[in-house]
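Design review, sub-item: ligand-bound model
Attendees: FS, YL, KQ
YL presented the inputs for the 2-phosphoglycolic acid complex:
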Amino acid sequence: MRKPIIAGNWKMNNTIAETEKLVTELIPMVADAKADVVICVPYTSIAKAVELTKGTNIHVGAENVHWAEKGAFTGEISANMLVELGVEYVVIGHSERRQYFGETDQTVNMRTKAALAHGLKPIICVGETLEEREGNLTEEVVVRQTVEAFKDIDANELANIVIAYEPVWAIGTGKTATSEQANDTIKIIRDTMAKLYGDKTAEEVVRIQYGGSMNPANVKELMAMPEIDGGLIGGASLVAEKFSQVVNY
Ligand code: PGA
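KQ shared the predicted structure:
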């Protein structure tokens, strides 16, 4: 019912030359994927990634987008700049943005609205820190992040939005949430979406990925969980062999 979606998040990795090598390797390896395949790449790699993936089943995403149309926002990139390059998806509110660059629930919402207004498909990240999990605040945190991210967003946009549940303590640490932990928290997020948009929409339309050290060894078990609709993959997306194994789980 909900089509799985596996997205790579390259973060600040890969020059244009490295992008060319990785994407060229990847194209035949994921050509028969049953899941939607996305690679979210640094701004400088976008043009090359779009050029190479034209006519393939790989979709290209950016890693952030500003909410304004244009103006005095040094270092930022607007939605229409991304659209002009042929970008389809955009990661919004990744925990690294929240942790290191002052991203808030409110800016996540503003970026999401700007992305949608230009036809980009947001991948909205939510997730608790280790401290929050240990303080039994996981539910409170992911519910708040979800409700705030979706403020003023119409139900008919939901087919174009992906949510990524990424427990911060599992990102880049090699420590995966157990499939039950991931499934339980994603259920909380889906229930939150059901309160906002109704049971049917939450059940049939809203796709929720898991992210945090997902790799070829654990993807099968995670994807077998009923609530998990895909993955947002960091480290393992930087090696064609590994990412293709995740995609073809
Ligand atoms: P990881 O990163 O797979 O390296 O843990 C996931 C992410 O941050 O999106």
